[in-house]
User: Which sequence fits this backbone?
């Protein structure tokens, strides 16, 4: 059977996982897997748009979970999209694309940037981010994908 027709095995992950966003310089981000959310959202503050080589980019800060200095990131802006927040109110949010590392796999996902200060997790991983990657979510378990080793806040 040709290698192109062999499907990857299904991976079971928990409802809470540690993931990596290496293109943003974030080797570990605490994520809640939320199949009820369509779009993924990353906790970001101080979001500013700028032009680079004729394209619109965003600069933003991912705050340190312990309240110290955060990590400044930059990414190309894909679009701005109306997304309902946790209260059901629509907000216009910037959307970026970046690589996600989860369960020893990696692929590109779209992320909305939002202030998630009062939320328990810096990243909500919505259903479109995991759809098509042969992943099942066990809502009663956490960290089934394995604990990531490097933390940017300890560097």
Assistant:
């Amino acid at each position: 059977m040709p290698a192109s027709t062999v499907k990857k095995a299904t991976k079971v992950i928990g409802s809470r996982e540690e993931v990596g966003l290496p293109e943003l310089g974030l080797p570990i981000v605490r994520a809640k897997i939320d199949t009820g959310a369509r779009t993924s959202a990353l906790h970001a503050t101080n979001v500013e748009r700028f032009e680079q080589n004729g394209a619109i980019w965003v600069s933003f800060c991912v705050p340190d979970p312990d309240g110290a200095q955060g990590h400044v990131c930059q990414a190309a802006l894909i679009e701005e999209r109306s997304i309902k927040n946790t209260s059901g109110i629509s907000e216009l949010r910037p959307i970026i694309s970046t690589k996600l590392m989860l369960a020893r796999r990696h692929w590109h996902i779209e992320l909305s940037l939002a202030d998630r200060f009062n939320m328990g997790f810096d990243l909500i991983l919505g259903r479109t981010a995991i759809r098509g990657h042969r992943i099942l979510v066990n809502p009663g378990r956490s960290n089934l994908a394995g604990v990531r080793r490097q933390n940017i806040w300890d560097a």
Observations:
- The two ends are 45 Å apart (CA to CA).
- The longest helix spans residues 127-130.
- The mean pLDDT is 87.
